[in-house]
Design a protein that fits this description.
CATH class of the largest domain: Alpha Beta
Distance between the termini: 45 Å
CATH superfamily of the largest domain: Type I PLP-dependent aspartate aminotransferase-like (Major domain)
Number of strands: 14
Strand content: 5-15%
Structural class: alpha/beta
CATH topology of the largest domain: Aspartate Aminotransferase, domain 2
CATH architecture of the largest domain: 3-Layer(aba) Sandwich
Strand order of the largest sheet: 2-8-7-6-5-3-4
Oligomer: single chain
């Protein structure tokens, strides 16, 4: 039966992030205490007013335009203008069932090749493979916050030659939790060689210095933006994303609209109406409080892990850290993660899932294994989260980190 499956699809495997979540749930159901540091989902509840708006629109059953609700596209356009300074018109925005689907449509429509920084989110490469777009990796370093330097990017572009190219940039970054601090340098190289950039801004509202920075500010004519509700709003299961296209590339949007019409048709109608409230409403207090919790929790884990056995960059956004273990015991990061899971119950993702070579002992740690609703309700401040609060409201993060530190002492 395998012969009925296309060769490029046969080589794919389920998304690593979803797979680790299912594995953690299975082990937990079998009675093993699991600290799920492998799955990157917002732990916080969706703001009540947004939930109420969904309820109030649950009766709406008609299909919406395939490009999405006009009112929602206008709200996103205004939001992007406020955050980036760039005018992505509502006519140049398409609503998608999650930003993941938006990126898949981009890959399917695009005729060219893809540049990915090491590390990159687990689904960028498989999506390119599905669309038969060749992937080229550009190396990064912890000294450069795990983003490519202009010099390394230019070398990679020259090596590829004169082809259509999209560079995918994600800041704050999954898996490292760091933000890009050389956007202008990268944008200047992209402009010089006329390559395009997909700026994945799904975590941009979760930057710990509370500034929303987009590379589109430096390269508005060549930057696509993808985003959605899953991370800042806690609405991952609602599957509401968007894709914004520069005016000069509006023909590309027409291809995305055609693909949308032949695949998912349109995005869930009640959710689109609720998303209008999410983008138009004032949720700054909610954002500040959730950012404060994540920032202080990330710092707690960072401070506990950083040692002569564990190298790690400080967290700057999202809810991830990317520790590197100094060891001579394991041949691959996957083997190391299996040992950690078996001996400590801590579920992590190996760096090889994000583009690193298997023998590079890096892992992604997501510090979201806590009851976000309980933490949010009981947190006393928008600016500081005390050690007492962390220990009380995020006990799994505290205990899982402790077990990881103890495990590392035997390296």
């Amino acid at each position: 039966m395998e012969n009925f499956v296309k060769k490029n699809i046969r080589s794919l495997r389920p998304s690593a992030t979803l797979a680790i979540n299912e594995k953690a749930k299975k082990l937990s159901s079998e009675g093993k205490k699991i600290f799920n540091f492998g799955f990157g989902q917002s732990p916080f509840p969706i703001p009540e007013k947004i939930v109420s708006t969904l309820k109030n629109n649950a009766h709406r059953k008609d299909y919406l335009p395939m490009q999405g609700l006009e009112e929602l596209r206008e709200a996103i356009s205004n939001n992007l203008k406020k955050n980036t300074g760039v005018n992505y018109k509502k006519e140049n925005i398409i609503i998608t069932p999650g930003s993941k689907e938006a990126m898949l449509l981009m890959h399917v429509a695009f005729d060219g090749e893809i540049i990915l920084p090491v590390p990159s989110w687990v689904s960028y490469e498989p999506q390119a493979d599905i669309a038969l777009n060749k992937v080229h990796w550009v190396q990064t370093s912890s000294e450069n916050n795990w983003y490519p330097s202009g010099i390394d990017l230019e070398k990679k572009i020259k090596a590829i030659g004169k082809k259509n190219i999209i560079l995918i940039l994600n800041s704050p970054n999954n898996p490292s939790g760091t933000k890009c601090e050389n956007m202008k340098e990268i944008a200047d190289i992209a402009k010089k060689y006329k390559i395009l950039i997909l700026s994945d801004e799904i975590y941009a509202d979760l930057t710990f210095d509370e500034t929303y920075e987009s590379i589109s500010k430096y390269y508005p004519d060549g930057t696509f933006i993808s985003g959605g509700l899953s991370k800042w709003c806690g609405a991952g299961g609602w599957r509401l994303g968007f894709f914004a296209v520069p005016t000069k590339l509006s023909k590309f949007l027409n291809a995305l609209k055609t693909l949308a019409s032949e695949s998912y048709s349109t995005v869930n109608t009640p959710v689109q109406y609720a998303a209008v409230e999410a983008y138009n409403g004032d949720y700054n207090k909610y954002k500040l409080k959730t950012i404060n919790i994540l920032k202080n929790l990330g710092k707690y884990v960072y401070d506990k892990l950083k040692s002569n056995k564990i190298l790690i960059n400080p967290p700057q956004g999202a809810f991830y850290l990317m520790p590197e273990f100094i060891n001579s015991k394991f041949k691959t990061s996957s083997e190391m993660c299996e040992d950690i899971l078996n001996k400590t119950g801590v579920a992590l993702l190996p760096g090889s899932d994000f583009g690193f070579k298997p023998d590079k002992m890096l892992v992604r740690l997501s510090y979201t294994d806590f009851n976000g609703e309980y933490f949010l309700k009981n947190s006393r401040s928008h600016n500081e989260t005390s050690l007492d609060e962390i220990e009380k409201f995020a006990p799994n993060v505290v205990e899982g980190t402790k077990r990881l530190v103890e495990w590392s002492k035997n390296l």
